[in-house]
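Known limitations

Files may contain more than one protein. Parsers should not assume a single record per file. Below, a two-record file is shown to illustrate correct handling: read the sequence, read the token line, then continue until end of file.
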Amino acid sequence: MQVGLLCVSIQFVPSGKICVNGIYDLLDHLCKGKVFSWRELKMKFRVLIALVLTGVSANVFAKSEFLDFFMSHYKISDSSTLGSKACLICHQTEDDYTKMNVYGADLKMEMAAIGAPAVNEAVLKEVGTLDSNGSGKTNEQKILAGSAPGDPGPVSNKPATPPPAKPKSLIPKNFFHPAVVHFPIALFIGGLILDFIGLRFKKQNFLVAGWYDILLASITSLGGIATGFGAMLIQKVPFKGLIFTHMILALVSGALMFVMCLLRVHRHEKMHLPTRLIYYVLAASCFVLISYAGHLGGAFVYGE
């Protein structure tokens, strides 16, 4: 899917230079109020479509590859006790995704032994015959019984030594991302609603208010992206899979918001038809990307 979309993009835009020049020419014409011929307009839309397709091509990484494959292979429900553990099936903690539990370590070793780039049927079958935590049952038996194969195995009667208490930090492990990221989402949707009311009932005040909402959404999106990267660094989350797609969509959405603001500067109800059509396409694309990025963020935290 990704290769196909990228091929379409290359067909539309033969080189990066043409793409960049096309965007610059597009914005320059729009800001000066010039009207495109139909042939010019088709070429500009090809540039825009190519960019959107290139951004959307990242959706092939939309899910956590191992977790989805693991759940499907063993037919585990998301609502089950084992399914609710999600990433903790293989990882020791959600604070540091570089630390694997005994089951995750066995999977990693088996993948390296057979040269598998990702978890597959052969890896799960071989590791399923092991007893990673020393409980006396194979990993597959524990999984089918609904227990996590990486959980600690049998312990002696000796009381366990409690781990040392971690000093509390003023900065949470999510780096305030959940508190910040909802501002650009709400402001952008509110701006679209105000735009619709202003255009429908010819109320310039609503159009101006909608533009300011989208401008604020653009600015606060920078905070949402920054706190997202901060949370990744604190939790040591690998920049791949589901989280990779989530961040790419956030970056593309933020860029589209800024382009929408540029199209609207001092031209609220006076946009020419080609400009207005492009504005609507950007608004719809941005709304879809933001919605899907939010879905992926929720799936990463709470599971599918």
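...continuing to the second record:
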Amino acid sequence: MQETKKVGYAVLGLGVGKSHARAVLSSKNGKLVAVCDLLEEKLEKAKEDYGDILTYTDFELMLKNPDIEIISNCLPSAMHADFTVRALEAGKHVLVEKPVDITVQAAEKIEAARKKTGLKVGVIHQNRFNACMTPVKEAIDSGKLGKLILGTFAVKWYRTQEYYDNGGWRGTWDMDGGGSLMNQAIHTVDLMQWLMGDVESVTSHMGVFAHDIETEDMTASLIKFKNGSSATFVSTTCAYPGISTDVQVYGSKGSIEVNEDKLKLWAFLDEDEEESKKMLDKYGAGNGSLTSLDPGLVVGHATQVHDIIDAVLFDKEPLITPNDAIKSVAIANAIYDSARSGKTIYFE
């Protein structure tokens, strides 16, 4: 039996990009060929950690390597569209870190280049692939939860001033596109719209309370959806020492609560307590408990890295496309627009 060929992979940016590199190494169909970063010490560490790989400080030079078929773009947020388009035009498929970019207009350039080249582009929103999110999504989509009434979403994290000072781009409008919302909470914005549906309007407040940054370290919003439900959404990097990431959805037939990757509440009118206990026993300890029981289970970043490799190898759509990811960027920018103007922002 002929072996499936391994797809050559490179990682651009060795911050969160280290997670991508590890995921490539854990895949059966991918081969980590190269990494690219401006800092030589990061490249030296990558060679120690990942073995026989090429290292680049010159992105254009890396693009000329014919052994590289996919590039993970893990640069600062505002550089995503530019470098993704350049990679696509050089014939490379791309997996883009969140957010897809900091504006809808920039993200649409990625979608246009994807269409023009016919190449694959995926976007990281790995929290959709936490193990517990599969039954949560199924309960909503199947009608098991009943009519959606309310969601509460809160990203209560903590970041030091040193975190923002390191690198010089975090907490800036030009490069980060925002603060706690666009950087830390964009994953949860994605989960909110994925679970609750299309947004009708947002009404928001934001401010800087505990850091010396130009954007925000707290947002609070009321979100209304086209299906008639509502949600509150809070993001902050002021909640010492870092508390929770709450995803809570309430319908006419039940309630579901999740914190990070752990199921905390599973309660339905038509289900006995024994079934609820089974769900909490299975998903209550998070991804780590499930992967220890099933080493073949893939969650988080690895899900999407393995997926983009298979998308290239077997010519299929990535799990999350640029058009999917644009939705969360549009919502985040509407929250900012509302907070600046003091007005409710409506979606078409």
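Parsers that stop after the first record will miss the second one. For reference, the second record is described as follows. The longest strand covers residues 148-156.
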